[in-house]
Design a protein that fits this description.
single chain, A middle domain of Talin 1
Amino acid sequence: MAIDLLFFIIGLLMLYYGANWLVRGSSGLARSAGVRPVIIGLTIVAFGTSSPELFVSVVSSLKNKGMIAVGNVVGSNICNIALVLGTAALFQPITSHRSVIRRDIPVMLGISLYLLMISLDSMLGRINGATLFAGIIAYTLFNYYIFTKETEKKYSGESVVFESAAEKTAEKTRYPGSKSRSKFKQILLIALGICGVVGGADFLIDSSVKFMKLFGVNEKFIGLTIVAFGTSLPELATSVIAAIRKEMDISIGNLVGSNVFNILSVLGAAALIRPVSIPGGFIKSGLFIDYLVMIFTSFLPWLMMRKTYTITRKDGFILLLCYIGYLVYLIVKS
């Protein structure tokens, strides 16, 4: 028991620091190569912050523990909105761009409903995985296209020069010493990050399975609670620190994007590797309720922000209560 707990904690730490190193190393290397910041944000950083979910789900699929993969994604999406966004809003009200309400949250809800639809037969096959994975490619390309069009309309002449200077200043502040860091160190950080998330995922899954057998709970419960919380630690730590420092660039848009990435890329990759079956059926297993909770928590930010585009401290408290209530439901049911 003690050794399993130790390996579980080691797995969480490896996931957290591995994801952090992966983002830092990849971002630094991309900037050194002259890649635009928007490309970094849409690809490398998005992958890095969701890499714990991705690697945990892939390892789960390889070990024929598909329900941990599904539970991890559903639980992480609930955690990202109800716990992470709620906690961050308690420290500092979070204001978002209008496009998040008009475009990004509706896209997240639409993808969640699509996942619900393809799960009704209690199986996520390789074709389902292919459609999901194709979705993340289309979503990334679409966001890049929209960003490029908006940037072209908004900035011209001196404002572009000003923006470039501001971006450079922000990058120096956010990533001190990144210019002086050698490419070798950046590549080393990437390698360490990949080793961290892969090794951490392996430790986390093995110890979670042992806990599951010890306490007599199923894969779904482990995935929805312990594993989901563990893989959401990077988002939680980043959002809370950003709220304390009043850095508004860490906003609901990042969490919405992470949720979209989790469904499309993480579950897509897991189903492509090995079809994921839902033991006991989608309805009878209770996973249908978990999906509804995920969709409801995804809808709450839109409801709260539709007029002011802001998540207030009161809204953050409501989100936290929703997460606590959901945990109580899972514990009582198990």
